[in-house]
Amino acid sequence: GAAKFVVVVAIFLLTFYVISQVFEIKMDANLGHIFARSALDAAARSTKPPRYKCGISKACPEKHFAFKMASGAANVVGPKICVEDNVLMSGVKNNVGRGINVALVNGKTGETLDTKFFDMWGGDVAPFIEFLKSIPDGTIVFMGTYDDGATKLNEEARKLIADLGSTSITNLGFRDNWVFCGGKGIKTKSPFEQHIKNNKDTNKYEGWPEVVEMEGCIPQKQD
Predict the structure, then answer these.
(1) β-bridge pairing 192-196 and 177-183
(2) 170 and 97, same structural domain?
(3) By residue range, what is the domain housing residue 37?
(4) Both 172 and 131 in a single domain?
């Protein structure tokens, strides 16, 4: 009986030892896997490029507003205007339309003041002119075309937009793509403007040129 007891105890201890060794090996393997995965995740995070406001390519300096915008694509996808990581106008927000799309931003605070679109194909230019005249001094003005933004534009409307700093507005034609950022009361021409002509030989889409995009950093208005 004593011999059997010793054998049973020995078998139990041996079994316990084997199980503990296997468990320890599995624990080591699992810990090794966890640490390896953590190291890979950390490496991935360190190599992932940083994201800046509105997805622009580099960070803006202090006291500047980051922006990114795009014109419409043909008559299918509307324009998009983003300021300080806040999408002001887009097809997703359902606040864009055919013609010229306009977003107004306070030049000191970056606060959105208004967003509107004016149909320059089948609409009336008079409300657009009144809107342009009512923009307060110190306002940052973003504009982007969708479908056609020029047919109903007259000399008065073009002059008011030129006063905001645009140089391309005098040449904006039927179905041209155009994005612009200027300001009410600006003393110089704006550096933020992109314009591509509607040309059947170079158009990306049938009847429309390719989308134009623009990004940049706008200095905050100082008192």
Answers:
(1) antiparallel
(2) yes
(3) 1-44
(4) yes
Strands 64-70 and 213-219, how do they pair?
antiparallel
Residue with tokens 């342009």: 132
How many domains would you assign to the chain? 2
0.70 surpassed by pTM: yes
Residue 138's CB is within 10 A of a number of other CB atoms, namely: 14
93 and 181 assigned to the same domain: yes
Q: Report the amino acid identity of residue 43.
A: A
- Residue 202 token pair: 């170079």
Q: Per residue in 23-71, pLDDT tens?
A: 554 445 454 554 456 655 555 555 677 889 999 999 999 999 999 999 9
Beta 99-106 vs 213-219: how paired, if at all? unpaired
Span 167-202, pLDDT tens digits:
999 999 999 999 999 999 988 999 999 999 999 999
Q: What is the CA radius of gyration of the chain?
A: 31
Task: Name the one residue in this structure whose structure tokens are 């609409």.
Answer: 123
Contacts of residues 206-211 at CB distance under 8 Å and 24 or more positions apart, as own/partner, are: 206/74, 207/74, 207/175, 208/73, 208/74, 208/75, 208/147, 208/175, 208/177, 209/175, 209/176, 209/177, 210/177, 211/70, 211/71, 211/72, 211/73, 211/77, 211/177
Same structural domain for residues 61 and 39?
Answer: no
Q: Are residues 32 and 130 in the same domain?
A: no
